[in-house]
Amino acid sequence: MSKSVRGSYLLEGLRRLGSVALFLLQLLGQSLPALARPGLLVKQIYNAGARSLIIIMLSGLFVGMVLGLQGYDLLQRFGSEQALGTAAALGLLRELAPVITALLFAGRAGTALTSEIGLMRATDQLTAMEIMAVDPLRYVAAPRFLGGVIAMPLLTAIFSVIGLYGAQLVGVQLMGVDKGVFWSQTQGSVALHDVSEGLVKSVVFGFACSLIAVHEGYHAEPTAEGVGLATTRTVVASSVLILLLDYVLTAAFL
């Protein structure tokens, strides 16, 4: 690859990064006025959160069951199968719940946000709002952004609870771990910083996913192909950024 090509890729990356940063500043400026419309905000929380509940709960259950199987097999080799509750709780709260929830959120709610706003751009609805002196950032982008940020921690908490139930279902019902020991180990090993780590990760992931989804939809090319490309960019960029931020936050907490 020639230097000119590498330079063009670098400039394009810097341009997109600057575009996202400027959009974020504008979005934050309109977020506070958007809070004055609680009905619209609740609707967006429902769209981003409640409509993702089924896939979040099913994924949490199966991830917890797999964690119970793998954790029991690993701990049994060291004669520590009674610590299954500790392994399941810490694994879910600190790592699996926020990361997998964010990836599912990007694939379900993030693409929905991008395509919805992108279609509004393609059908000139956003332009019509600007002509009527109605700020689309305040009435379209900001409520959807805030709805995603608020919904993510709630979905993560649900994923954690269902995942723990799945781990308990396999560990206690199938593998014979004592139920009282499982839950006592869980309660005794989980500290406040473990819960706060998962909470911080879920908020950061929700912020990043919602920002990318709203930005890509708002700046999508006003064509069917442009909306499709924006949706694809949302999934790819959100997934990579989630894994990158997960490493950074994990290193910071450790």
Task: Provide key terms for this protein.
0% strand; elongated; mainly alpha; 254 residues
Order of helices and strands: HHHHHHHHH
Q: Total strand count, please?
A: 0
Structural class: mainly alpha
Count of the separate structural domains:
1
Helix content: over 70%
Shape: elongated
Largest sheet: none
Terminus-to-terminus distance: 39 Å
Uncertain runs are: none
What is the alpha-carbon Rg in Å? 21 Å
Beta percentage is under 5%
Average pLDDT level: 88
Number of helical stretches of at least 4 residues: 9
Quaternary assembly: single chain
Task: Tell me what you see in this structure.
Helix content is 87%, strand content 0%. It has one domain (3-253). It is mainly α. It starts with a helix and ends with a helix. Helix 1 (3-34) packs across helix 6, helix 3 (53-76) packs antiparallel against helix 4 and helix 6 (136-174) packs across helix 8 (192-218).
Could you give a short description of this structure?
The chain is mainly α and about 250 residues long.
How does the SSE layout of this entry go?
Blueprint lengths: L2 H32 L3 H11 L4 H24 L7 H39 L2 H7 L4 H39 L4 H11 L2 H27 L5 H30 L1
Helix pairs in contact: 1-6, 2-6, 3-4, 3-6, 4-6, 4-7, 4-8, 4-9, 6-8, 8-9
